[in-house]
C-alpha cells in the first residue's frame, strides 16, 4: 500500500489502482475563516478525479471541509460511519454526493483486495478531548457517542490504522479491539495536537497560560505515544490538527499549546524505539511506500521565521465570514432568546442537569444575558452586575457570529465557534463543568 500525505488529516491510501481520499481539508477558511494551512496547500480539484472513495471520519470541517468537498467530483462515493443521528449524512448529501453508511466495526470489501473498517470512538469525555461543548451525554442515552471515528484499511497483507481525531483516552477500548482482531499493524496515523480553545481563549494570567501551554503539549504528545505502544506498528505518522489561525485571531498562533510537527517528530524519535517503530514525516503531496518503507522524498522542516512572516503578511489580513454582515442590534438578538432558551431548558431537563453555576453571554449595549442552569429562567442584566456573581462561565464573541449561532446550526454552531477560537471564556472558578458546557450546545433556535 502507498500512503500520500496532503495536509492536516488529509491523506490518500492506495492499493494497486484503488484510492481512498481520507478527510480532505485542502482549502483555507474553515471555522468561519479562522483556520488556514501552513505551509499553504496548492489545491487542484481535478487532481482527485481518479479517487475511488472519500472517507470522512466525522463532521468537523477540518475533516469534512465543505469548502473542499464542494469542489471535488460528486461521482465519488463518500464512506461514513452509520451514526445514530443523520445530520452528518444529510450535510454531505446536500453537497451532491452519494453517501454510503457503514456499520460500526464491520470490515467491508471495497474493490480488488482493499477493505475498510470504520470504528466509533466511544466513552467520550470533553475534558479529555478539549471540546468544550461536548457530546458525552449521547453515550448515556444511546450507549455510544459515535461522533468521531477511526478506520482500518487493509489489503489482506498490510494494515493501516487511521485514528483521525480520536484521542487515546477516549478510544483506548476501540483501539484495543482493533489490535486484538488485526494483530500486526504496519502503520498508524495519529494526532499529536488538539483543537482546544484552552488556554489561548481563556482569561488567565501569563504564568497560567505558560503552564497550560506546556502541559497541553506534553499531554497531547504523550497520547500519541500511547497509540504507538498499543499498536506496536512498523511505522507511524503524526498528523491531523495541523492548523494556523488567521485574521484577527492570528495573534494567538504561538500561544495555543499546539506542537509544531517538528516538535512532535523530536518527541517521538526520542521517546519511542525507532528500530521497532519508525516515525515518518511527509511533505505535502509526497508518499510513503509501506511495503519497502521508502519515502518519495526527504522531509523539509518548516522555517518558523517564514511561517511568522506568512502569518503577519497574509493570514492576519483574512476577513471572517461573519465580518461581512451588519452588526445586529440588541433588540434583534433578544428576539431570538426565548426559542433558544426553550430548547436549552428542554435538553437540560431531559438529561437531568442542575447547576448553581450561571452562564453569562456578552450582548451589545453593555448588557449580559444571564442563563440559569437550574430552571430559574433567564434575564438581561447590565455588564456592571458581573462582579456580583461568584460562580459563572462568561462567553464573549462577535455579535454577528452570536446572532448566527442563535439562529441555528444551518448558520453556525457553538462547537465550531469554539474550535475556531472565536469565543473568549472567563470561568469563575476556573473549573470545567460538563453539564452546563453540554447544555449551552442547545442554546439556539
Shape: globular
CATH topology of the largest domain: Metallo-beta-lactamase, Chain A
Number of helices: 13
Percent of residues in helices: 25-40%
| Highest-level CATH class of the largest domain | Alpha Beta
Give the strand line-up of the largest sheet.
7-6-5-3-2-1-16-17
CATH architecture of the largest domain: 4-Layer Sandwich
Uncertain regions: pLDDT < 50 for 5+ in a row? 123-134, 136-146
Description:
This protein is an alpha/beta fold. It has 2 domains: 2-317, Metallo-beta-lactamase, Chain A (4-Layer Sandwich), CATH 3.60.15.10; 330-440, Nonspecific Lipid-transfer Protein, Chain A, CATH 3.30.1050. The chain contains 13 helices and 22 strands. Helix 5 (168-182) runs parallel beside helix 6 (206-231). The protein is globular and about 65 Å long. The model is unreliable at 123-134 and 136-146 (pLDDT under 50).
